[in-house]
């Protein structure tokens, strides 16, 4: 019998995505069961990947934790930093994982580190045996409020950031802000740039919190009460944006504020310019554009610049380059399916999307920013 001409089969399915994020105090305290709260504990094994800096600070406690719970743990380390987000790192995790067979369903891989480590390990977990579960423990502010919150994984490839990767939800995200204590100040400021992004584009109350308490919270690595409030509010806001659009079917995303011109800057400056630092430069140019278009009044724009100054985020305005940023915008047009879809602030905490930014507008905005800096003796309090 031959096949029926014209026969057609159709498959339609949805994959349910469910994970939780949990504030935990002292995640490596042997009395805490948070790290083992998912999966098999009796005769259990765990494959654990730890950022090398985090291992230097907490390695002994991490080993003691698993020993205390009688878990057979294979603990490997990976270097942090953008240079570690490579195909080689991804392969190394896979080789080690293949050498330490874990149960496919109930022994989740545990990723403990910054955005680089959780992106690499998330991608490896998604690839191994077509997907094994993983748990994330972010240890940088960037990871805490951004990289570990959503479902994107990835590695850099062919000189492009995040060119390989996928959407793979973790099973659980454990948030222990105590881990931020050992984070160098530059990396605290780096993560703060993403919090400023959320405040400007979607949350005026968070903006007010940052104005009142942001500098003090940064100074004590978010260990104070207000620091906790800022973190909770940032994560809640981030999730409200991400959750309805986990697979980015909607390409106009408020969380892309600061992520249009920054792409080119990050690609050019590599490890010398951190993700959040590039995002901050983009935020400033976008704010200047919004001010020129009358989307922001002088007072609102002034508050944004004043906050950046109060937090001592110290943007490297000298890196701004109109041609580079224009090319970056063109690249984002490809990424956003043919339209610019650039989020701009329209009043503090509000957002509009525009599709008509011209190269000249970027140039003039950079010029305005530089002029403000010079005329106010390296301060950018007003626009
Ligand atoms: N998946 C996503 O949705 C998403 C979102 C935002 C950013 N990212 C990615 O995140 C990456 C940046 O992440 P990052 O800023 O966390 O960088 P990172 O992971 O490189 O960490 C920064 C530095 O801090 C060190 N470190 C980490 N935790 C520490 C701690 N507790 N104490 C002391 N040192 C510590 C690391 O070794 C590294 O040197 C970028 O690659 C970016 O693309 C991903």
Automatic annotation (TrEMBL):
GO terms assigned for molecular function: 3-dehydroquinate synthase activity; metal ion binding; nucleotide binding
GO annotation terms (biological process): antibiotic biosynthetic process; aromatic amino acid family biosynthetic process
Pfam family, one: DHQS_C
InterPro entries: Dehydroquinate_synthase (IPR050071), DHQ_synth_fam (IPR030963), DHQS/DOIS_N (IPR030960), DHQS_C (IPR056179), EEVS-like (IPR035872)
Annotated TM spans: none
Cofactor: NAD(+); Co(2+)
Domain 3-dehydroquinate synthase C-terminal: 191-325
Key words, A-Z: Cobalt, Lyase, Metal-binding, NAD, Nucleotide-binding
Positions of the 3-dehydroquinate synthase N-terminal domain: 76-189
SUPFAM superfamilies with a match to the protein in the record: Dehydroquinate synthase-like (SSF56796)
Keyword presence, Nucleotidyltransferase: no
PANTHER family given in the database record: 2-EPI-5-EPI-VALIOLONE SYNTHASE (PTHR43622:SF3), 3-DEHYDROQUINATE SYNTHASE (PTHR43622)
Protein name, per record: 2-epi-5-epi-valiolone synthase
Organism of provenance: Rhodanobacter thiooxydans
